[in-house]
Amino acid sequence: MVIVAAISDSEQSRDIAARADELAQAFDDELALIHVIEETEYTRIVEKQSNTRETGAGSVEDNAAAQAADGLDEVISTDYDVIGRVGNPGKKVVEYADEVDARYVVVGGRARSPVGKALFGSVTQSILLNTERPAVTVPALE
After folding, report:
1. What is the C-alpha separation between 28 and 20, in angstroms, rounded?
2. Which region is the signal sequence (predicted)?
3. Which of these, 80, 74, 103, lies nearest to 2 by C-alpha position?
4. pLDDT tens for the chain, residues 1 to 142
């Protein structure tokens, strides 16, 4: 099976990747890091590339995913794949997890109140509400 970790270009991705790596090792599963850019961001990047005549090896989504995963080798000890997608992040993560029959989906969360009540970001909330797979939420250390 596969452990799917939803990453972004945030510092919290290190914690998410580390937890996903622990699960992959514990279950002897594959590890996939997925980064989704929204359509508006995709359009902005494509327009910037065409205006500056930048070309890169690989697709925009794969390049964005590789950039989001940059530096995660320090916290991951197993082999992993980096997946890039374009669209609604919550929807695309759930679709990918279903596509690969993920054992777990690992996402980030944020603690917001003094009493420790967890309030999730909209992407995390969307994933938690729409996946039928077990999900692990990694709280941000704020």
Report:
1. 12
2. none
3. 103
4. 999 999 998 889 999 999 999 999 999 999 999 999 988 888 888 888 777 665 555 788 888 888 889 999 999 999 999 999 999 999 999 999 999 999 999 999 875 554 444 455 688 889 999 999 999 999 887 5
The b/e string for 68-99 (b: 16+ C-beta within 10 A; e otherwise) is bbeebeebbeeebebbbbbeebbebbbbbbee
The count of structural domains within the chain is 1
Q: Which domain holds residue 41?
A: 2-139
CATH of the domain at 49: 3.40.50.620
Contacts of residue 28, defined as CB under 8 A and 6 or more positions apart, other chains included, come to none
Between CA 73 and CA 87 the distance in angstroms is 26
The CA distance from 35 to 8, in Å, is 6
